[in-house]
Amino acid sequence: MEFTPIDLTKLNSINKGTMMEVLGIEYLEARQGYLKAKMPVDERTFQPARLLHGGASMALAETLGSVGSSIMVNLDEYEVRGSQLSANHIKSAKKGWVIGEAILLHRGSNTHVWNIDIKNESGKLISTCRLTNFIIKKRPRP
Predict the structure, then answer these.
(1) Which of 43, 62, 79, 121 is catalytic?
(2) Matching CATH number, 8-137, of 3.40.50.300, 3.30.70.3550, 3.30.930.10, 3.10.129.10
């Protein structure tokens, strides 16, 4: 499993027609074991009290960790599947953007474990998440 450098324009284009596009997620930086993206805090990501929805934060976290694993494996041979996601929501966000940073903690042959911190534009921690991905060898198609 080797890392191939990712063009951010190409990486952002894969969001077209997905939940990531609806949520306004935009990748900012990508390298082996690290992925950074931003997401708006607005009507797309609010809960009824007009605060950032915890589920939107978790969607950002799972997106970062899953895409982070995907750019590290040969997708012709392997699939990436989320196994477990947990989050602690620390602070609320009411406007602007949140920035998620995913850092790879463990790169095994069958699992990747990521820590994802989501902060507001002032750098204050909003949520901290942990994601485990399965790395599965694709089976030949009949």
Answers:
(1) 62
(2) 3.10.129.10
